[in-house]
Amino acid sequence: MTLKIGIARETAPGERRVAVTPETCKKLVAAGAQVCIERGSGAGAHFPDRTYEEAGATLVDATEAAIADADAVLCVQPPPATAIAAMKTGAALVGTLQPQADAARGEAIVQRGVVAFPLERLPRTTRAQAMDVLSSQAGMAGYKAVLIAASLAPRFFPMLTTAAGTIRPSKVLVIGAGVAGLQAIATARRLGAQVEGFDVRPETREQIQSLGGRFLDLGVSAAGEGGYARQLTDEERAEQQRRLGEHLKNVDVIVCTAAVPGRPAPKIVSAAMVGGMKPGSVVVDLAAETGGNCELTRPGETDDHGGVVVAGPLNLASQGAQHASEMYARNVFNFMQLLLKDGAIGFDWEDELLSKTVWPERS
Question: What span is annotated as the signal peptide, if there is one (predicted)?
């Protein structure tokens, strides 16, 4: 019996990415799978239906037709509970699923007996790098965030020498030096700005400097386990806030990217700090989806606060849907390699990439 892989159209508002591109579709077909995809699934990322047909996919007209008898369903954002309920028992569901964020979704996964692999739970190991959707999508988000900041700022980013005199470069501060933050630093540098990077993990200093940024040292370290930051004490946070507030008075653009997995985004930029910034300054908060690093951020909104613009864009990776989809689909294909066993789906629970990613956790 032929292994069937199903892909339905994404239903989340504004989502333009797709979990399988014609490139990875061709690879899945070559691996012996029948790829069944709902028409229009790749349109938002500019992959026409005909390119999937040319890659060997079977196109269908409805979500249920794509997933009802699929052995594995691949997605970008989690499908609605009704779609999960239409999957067959024992099928694998692979994507950024966030099962604990929605009770109905989590219950549907359990009740239907679906084997869910939320890729945001993937261990951050060297072997998993080729499957790391959080990193690949964060890179696009960091890039887009700087372009948004440049469009909102009433200034040039680079230094310009003109007949009307010299224009000084903008001063850009990137808060958080994960994948999104480092991409933001690199992009702002390419646009010619003076760039600083701030992170409470001291080991990020060399990464920031390697991209041409200056490491902003506020004298507070929050080095934690696994490359993530630990929570600051009240005293440490107060000192960090005081020093940061003083520094922001001379910054033109802030790009916020700091996040702690599974928790609300840390509040780093207070309303008082924004109030102390120069009119015409811009804050772009990538952490808006989990509450924002800036106290004034409103998810999905762009607001003016006394001449300082605070933007909280959502799902920035989707704004670069074509390249974001290409990276995401390769991540998913690489993960699927762990499941494909002799032309069928198999689960090797001795493999930590499977056992630590699957939800609910297996006892």
Answer: none
Q: What is the dihedral of CA 300, 301, 305, 310, to 10 degrees?
A: 40
Question: How close are the terminal C-alpha atoms of the chain, in Å?
Answer: 30
Model pTM score: 0.92
Residue pLDDT, tens place only, 31-72: 999 999 999 999 999 999 999 999 999 999 999 999 999 999
At residue 352, φ and ψ (nearest 5 deg) are -65, -25
Active-site residue, 221 included? no
The whole-number pLDDT of residue 145 equals 98
In our burial notation (b when 16+ CB lie closer than 10 A, e otherwise), range 52-71 reads beebbbebbeebbbbbbebb
Instruction: Retrieve residue 334's tokens.
Output: 């690489």
Per residue in 337-363, pLDDT (tens digit) is 999 988 889 999 999 999 999 999 987
pLDDT number for residue 227: 53
pLDDT at 228: 57
Among 172, 269, 264, smallest CA distance to 213 is for: 172
User: Catalytic residue among 71, 112, 132, 143, which?
Assistant: 132
**Torsion from C-alpha of 9, 10, 11, 13, nearest 10 degrees:** -140
Q: Which of 61, 100, 127, 129 is catalytic?
A: 129
Task: Output the CATH code of domain 141-314.
Answer: 3.40.50.720
- Residue 115 sits at φ, ψ, to 5 deg, of -95, 100
**Under a CB-based contact definition with an 8 Å cutoff, are residues 303 and 310 in contact?**
yes
Do 141-314 and 3-121+321-355 fall under one CATH topology?
yes
**What superfamily in CATH does domain 3-121+321-355 come from?**
NAD(P)-binding Rossmann-like Domain (3.40.50.720)
Structure confidence at residue 13 (pLDDT)? 93
Boundaries of every domain in the chain: 3-121+321-355, 141-314
- 9 in catalytic set: no
Give the residue ranges of the chain where pLDDT is below 50.
none
124 is catalytic: yes
pLDDT confidence of residue 261: 72
Q: Catalytic annotation on 61?
A: no
Choose, from 77, 221, 228, 298, the residue flagged as catalytic.
228
